[in-house]
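Issue 218. Parser rejects a valid record. Input:
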Amino acid sequence: MSPHPDAPAPDAPGSEATGTGVHVPAEHVPAEQVRAVHVPAPGGGRLWAERRGAGSPVVLLHGSGMDSRLWDAVAPALARHHDVIRYDARGLGRSSTPEQAFDDVADLGAVLDHFRLPGVALVGLSMGGETALDFALAHPDRVTALGLVGASVSGHDWPPSPETTAYADARRRGDAAELAELELSVWAALGRGAPGGELIAAMVEENAARRIVSEHHLAGAPARAAEPLLGTVVAPTLVVHGDRDHPEIAAIARRLADDIPGARGHLVPDADHYLPLRTPERLIELLLAHLA
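Output the parser choked on:
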């Protein structure tokens, strides 16, 4: 059983839990082992993270209202070629609940510092893609490549719609059940019967109440606007989105592919916003080619 998200971290700084009760330096942990740790978060709290594989480092970032299980079908395959780290964003999954304002970009930096990684490839979906892009703009020397999957982008002006109004109403009322229902109907349009459907529903429903708390504290993060700065991105960039994703995500994907120098865009059939669980094989193929 995983530790409670607010429990003290089982690892000491610079070490990783091997499942044997013995902590050893991270660089000495065998590549085939999966290591789960709790990373100290800026300002307090813990970020649950998992590390597996060996090779050039890749960090996987999930979207809002979900957790690192988003990468269940992708991480093991990437880890055959890369040192793969995935983590639960603040207040979601097995990470601790925030009690004050926090910043996802600073949290990502804390993860990289904990694992002593001066440079990494970042692969993020939705909010995770936005965080990855913001980090790449702030710290270009630390990002070797970007994979933006169904990504949002800071500074984008989302058009008003009935669904965005419904989301705001559900958050204001603290209605976790309605928020989860909206998430699944708008963003997981292929339904529970499609690949990954049951896990998607479980992630969304289990994180809905925590998401409301997390997003309340995230509102205090520094305002960023990556959209007008896309032409300054220097990391090799892959842009991917599904043909059944939200229309505004498709518009953002086109903007990313057009404005980031040298970016390559790919449209993946039979995938909604939860692409890593809907079509993992195609995403793995694209990522391995991009990160080679």
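Fixed in the parser; the record now loads. The first strand starts at residue 15 and ends at 17.
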